[in-house]
Design brief:
Length: about 120
């Protein structure tokens, strides 16, 4: 059964270019170590007509920020754990400086139920 790591990240608009540069590097590393897919999506419509949107609340969005939704696809949770171990080994113990507030992003692992 496939597995997905999903993220909702508030990114300052002034830091979006730096974030996307970091994301492109992340994609290369995760795909190199076996991830099946890696996407970074910048919000285009926070207020879809007739639908509630909880992304701003979930991201605790502040003025001057945008929302990034990203996900990484794996074969299984065990595969995710193996890939992430290789990624962390390559990237080292010291995380790079992040162009967003690490205390405000949402993350979870998901079993794919329909795919």
């Amino acid at each position: 059964m496939a597995y997905v790591d999903g993220f909702v990240i508030p990114v300052p608009k002034k830091s979006l270019k730096a974030y996307l540069k970091m994301a492109r590097m992340g994609k290369r590393v995760w795909m190199k170590h076996g991830a099946l897919d890696y996407k970074e999506c910048v919000v285009d419509d926070l207020k879809p007509s007739g639908m509630p949107s909880f992304f701003p609340k979930m991201a605790r969005l502040k003025k001057g920020e945008t929302v990034v939704f990203s996900y990484i696809l794996y074969k299984s949770k065990a595969h995710r754990d193996r890939v992430n171990a290789k990624v962390m080994k390559e990237m080292g113990n010291a995380p790079p400086e992040m162009p967003f507030d690490m205390k405000r992003f949402a993350y979870a692992g998901f079993k794919v139920a329909v795919g």
